[in-house]
């Protein structure tokens, strides 16, 4: 049996990994959203642009999966980014039924313009951490996400 890190009798949500990760995500939104508002963006729009830049998501389905958002709501966000000239749609080379998204030069310029402000905010909140602590935090979050993906993937594939 695997190690039991939590016990039902002593479990408190405020010490739960899930709660702490979700809380960090919410605080990240609060921290970064003002940066994007000044440019007429939302964090979601910025994330789509930077995910396209970094190859995390290349099509609407990938973006929906990353955000855990329904495709209708995300289609509107993508439409806004297309209308503003920051991303373009194209038919997938691998499957003509699918649409890929790509950053336009204007989209790349916008991402590159926003990144320094994002980096400044992240560095500000991490100022009390050593370089080794930040590296370890990132390593542990990657490990946690990998374990969660491994736990979720089999159940997801069974449902399909």
Q: Can you walk through the features of this model?
A:
This protein is mainly α. It folds into two domains: 15-123, Winged helix-like DNA-binding domain superfamily/Winged helix DNA-binding domain (Arc Repressor Mutant, subunit A, Orthogonal Bundle), CATH 1.10.10; 128-160. Helices cover 65% and strands 6% of the residues. The protein contains six helices and two strands. The protein has helices at residues 17-37, 43-54, 60-67, 71-83, 105-125, 131-159, and strands spanning 87-91, 99-103. A two-stranded antiparallel ribbon has the order 1-2. A hairpin with a 7-residue loop joins strand 1 and strand 2 (99-103). Helix 1 packs across helix 5, helix 2 packs across helix 5 and helix 3 crosses helix 4 (71-83). The protein is globular. The mean pLDDT is 88.
Could you write a compact summary of the structure shown?
The protein has 160 residues and is mainly alpha-helical. The protein has two domains: 15-123, Arc Repressor Mutant, subunit A, CATH 1.10.10.10; 128-160. It contains six helices and two strands.
């Amino acid at each position: 049996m695997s190690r039991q890190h939590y016990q039902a009798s002593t479990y408190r949500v405020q010490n739960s990994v899930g709660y702490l990760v979700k809380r960090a995500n919410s605080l990240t939104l609060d921290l970064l959203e003002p940066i994007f508002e000044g440019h007429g963006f939302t964090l979601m729009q910025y994330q789509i642009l930077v995910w396209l830049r970094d190859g995390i998501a290349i099509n609407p389905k990938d973006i929906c999966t990353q955000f855990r958002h329904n495709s209708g709501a995300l289609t509107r966000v993508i439409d806004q980014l297309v209308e503003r000239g920051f991303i373009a749609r194209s038919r997938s080379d691998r499957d003509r039924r699918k649409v890929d998204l790509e950053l336009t030069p204007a989209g790349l310029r916008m991402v590159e313009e926003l990144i320094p402000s994002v980096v400044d905010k992240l560095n500000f909140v991490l100022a009390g951490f050593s370089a080794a602590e930040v590296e370890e935090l990132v390593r542990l979050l990657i490990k946690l996400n990998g374990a969660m993906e491994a736990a979720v993937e089999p159940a997801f594939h069974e449902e399909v």
